[in-house]
Amino acid sequence: MLDLNEFQTRKLKIDVLLKEQGWDVGDRSKVVLEVDTKQSDFKKQVYKQVNETLRNDAESKYADYLLLDGTGKPLAIIEAKRTTKDPILGQKQAEEYADDIKTQTGKDVFIYLSNGYEIWLWDRERYGVRQVKAFYSLIDLERLFYQRENSKPEPEIDIDGSIVDRAKSIEVATRVVEHIHKGHRKALIVMATGTGKTRVAMAIIDQLIREGRVQRVLFLTDRKTLRKQAYDKGFMKFFQEEGKEVILSGNYDPNKRLYASTIQTFQEIYARKDINGRYIISPGAFDLIFSDEAHRSIYSKWKGIFTYLDAIQIGLTATPADMVERDTFRFFECEEGAPTALYSYEDAVRDGVLCDFRKNVSGARTYFQIEGIKPVDLTEGEREELLKKGIDPDEINFEGTELEKKVAIKGTSEAIVREFMDNCLTDQTGTLPAKTIFFAISKMHAKRLWEAFEKLYPRYKGQLARIIVSEDSRAQNLIKSFETESFPRIAISVDMMDTGIDVPEVCNLVFAKPVFSKIKFWQMLGRGTRADGACEHREWLPEGKKEYFKVFDFWNNFEYWNMNP
Questions:
Q1: Rounded CA separation 384/326 (Å)
Q2: Are 546 and 505 in contact (CB under 8 A)?
Q3: Phi (first) and psi of residue 396, to 5 degrees
Q4: Under DSSP, is residue 181 helix (H, G, I), strand (E, B) or coil?
Q5: How far is CA 217 from CA 46, 214, 254, 407, in A?
Q6: What would the DSSP string read from start to end of 237-270?
Q7: For 172-207, how does the pLDDT look when each residue is reduced to its tens digit (9 = 90+)?
Q8: Measured over all CA atoms, what is the biggest interatomic distance in the chain, rounded to whole angstroms?
Q9: Checking DSSP bridges between strand 288-292 and strand 119-122, what pairing results, if any?
C-alpha cells in the first residue's frame, strides 16, 4: 500500500475509481469538490467550494466530494482519508456534513468513506456502514435513492398464494422477508429438492418488489438447466409484465429488471469495461441476487462476483444443512448448521410433499468386484483446499481413467441392464419401465449401457433409452422429450442430470458409478423424490400412482456413506 496524503489519495485513487463508474470529476454538474456544507445553499443548488470561502473559518465544513443527481440535487458525499488511515475514522465527520445537507433539503444523502483502497457505504436510513468494492454509478445511486424515498416504511408481509400455496413454503418466504426487514442483507435457504425452492424465490422477489425495496433482480445458477428453470418456471410465469432476459454469451441489456444467468456467463461480463474505461456493471446494478445451489458458487473461482455486487444476497440449496460447507454459512452470515430458513427432506416426506426412497431400495449387487476402488473420503479441509483452487470435488472427471476402463466393460454393462429390467418399477401397463435415470461414470460407459439396452431389448427399436450428455447439441431437446413425452423412458446421463432436472415421474434411479461426495449423492437422490401430487402423466407411474421410488445402487454408495435406507 502506497502512503499517500489525502490530496494524493483523491487525485491518484478516488478520482480514478469514480471515473471507472462513469463519474467525471471535472464536470461540476455531476461532482463538486471540497463543498462547504455550512455556507452552501443546497436547496437552491448553490454549492460553495473551498476556494470561495475561508478554509480556516470555524463555521465552515468541507465535504471532499459531493455527487449530484441528474437534476443537480445532492445525492451522496465522499469523505476521503490518506491511504494509511482507516476510512471509518471519517464517519462522524461525514455524518455532520450529511446532517447539514439534510437540514436544508429534508433529504438524506448517501455517505461514502474511502482511503483509496477501501470504500465504505452508509445508507444510514436503512443500514449500517458496509464495505463495498467500488462506487455506484449515477443511475444505480439514483435508483437506490428512489427506493429509499418511495419504499413502504413498515410493509406488511403478504406472500402471494398464487406463487406458493404450501404452508411451509409461505413460512420460509415469510421468514426470509422478515430477516431482510430487520436490516440483514444476506440469507441462506435450505430446502430439499422438490419442495419448491424456485417458487419460494419468486414469492420473495414478488414481495420485495411490491414493497418498493427491490427493482432489479439477478438469479444466478451454476447450471444451464437451473437457469432455464428459474426463467421459464419463475420469471416467465409470475412476472409476465416485467422486462426480463437470460444473459447469454456475455451479452447484457441494462434496461431489463429481471435477469437469469449462469455464474460462468456472468463471470465474463461483470468486470468488463467499455471503450472509455467505465465498468458496464456497477456494484449497485442489482438490488437482489439469488444464488441457486450457493454452496457450489461462492468459493474463490466465483467469489469476485458476489463480493463486487452490493445487493441483498440470498443463497438457495437443496444440500442438507449438516452437509453445507462451513464457508457457505459464513458467507451468508449464518451460524454454522443454522440457515435462515430450512425445510428438510425428512419434514417434506412427513408432510407428504416428497417420496421416501428408504422404503424400497433395490438389493442390487453387480456380478463383478473391482478391487481397491471406493469413493474418496475427503475431509472438510481437503474439500476447502480443492475449492480454493477452483476444483469442485463433486465434479471428478473419470474420462480416460483406469477406473473408466474397468467399469465400462461390455459384460458388466449388460449385467446391470438385465438386473434393472428384471426389478425396476414399471408404468401403469406393467410392461415398460417407469421413467428412469441411469448415472454413468463417463461417456464411454454411457455408450456401453446404451448398447446393452439395444442388444438385449431390440423390440423397443432404439426408443427405450437415450444418452444425454452436455457435448450433445441436442441435449436440451432430449431432456425436454424425457420430461414431456412417453419415450425415452430411460435417460443415461454423465453428470448432466445429476442436479437441476425436475421430472416428478422419475421412479427409478440407477447408480452405475461410485459417487465421491455425500453432498452430490444426496443431490442425485433428489431426482426421484418428487411426490405423487406433482406428477401429471399417470400412465407412466406404477399402477397410475407414485408411492415411492426405487434406487439401484451398484456401487454400495449407501453403505459407504453410512446411509441405511
A1: 9
A2: yes
A3: -70, 130
A4: helix
A5: 37, 7, 12, 45
A6: HH-TTS-EEE--TT---TT-SEEEEEHHHHHHHT
A7: 999 999 999 999 999 999 999 999 999 999 999 999
A8: 96
A9: unpaired
DSSP string, 31-84: EEEEEETTT-BTTTTB--BGGGS-TT-TT--EEEEEEE-TTS-EEEEEEE--TT
**Is 0.85 topped by the overall pTM?**
yes
Cβ pair 136, 21 in contact under 8 A: yes
Kindly indicate the confidence band of residue 367, based on its pLDDT and cuts at 50, 70 and 90. very low
All three cell numbers of 35:
463543498
Q: What are residue 62's phi and psi, to 5 degrees?
A: -125, 115
Confidence of residue 408 (pLDDT cuts 50, 70, 90): low
Under 8 Å between Cβ of 187 and 226 = no
The enclosing H or E element of 145 equals: helix 138-150
What 3-state DSSP class applies to 551? strand
70: burial class by Cβ within 10 Å (0-12, 13-18, 19+)? exposed
| Model confidence at 345: pLDDT above 80 | yes
User: C-alpha 63: how far from its chain's center?
Assistant: 38
Cα–Cα dist 58/449, whole Å: 85
Amino acid at 501: I
Instruction: Report all structural domains of the chain as residue ranges with CATH numbers, in order of start.
Output: 6-150 (3.90.1570.30), 167-350 (3.40.50.300), 357-560 (3.40.50.300)
Cis peptide bond N-terminal to 393, omega within 30? no
Helix (H) or strand (E) holding 98: helix 91-105
Beta bridge partners of 245: 259
Question: Would you give the end-to-end CA distance of the chain in angstroms?
Answer: 57
531-549 burial code (b ≥16 CB/10 A, e <16): bbebbebeebbbeeebebb
Average pLDDT, the chain: 89
**Amino acid type, 71:** T
pLDDT confidence tier of residue 54, bands split at 50, 70 and 90: low
pLDDT more than 90, % of the chain:
70
| pLDDT score recorded for residue 395 | 58
Nearest to 181 by CA among 159, 160, 153, 200: 153
More confident call, 237 vs 56: 237
3-state DSSP call for residue 218?
strand
* Identity of the amino acid at 308: Y
Q: Confidence band (pLDDT; 50, 70, 90) for 404?
A: low
Residues in Cβ contact with 332 at an 8 Å cutoff, skipping those fewer than 6 apart: 186, 187, 188, 294, 313, 314, 315, 339, 340
Strand order in the sheet with 436-439: 465-468, 490-493, 436-439, 508-511, 550-553
Task: Give dist(CA 522, CA 319) in Å, integer.
Answer: 7
How far apart CA 263 and CA 388 sit, in angstroms, is 16
CA 317 vs. chain centroid, Å, equals: 9
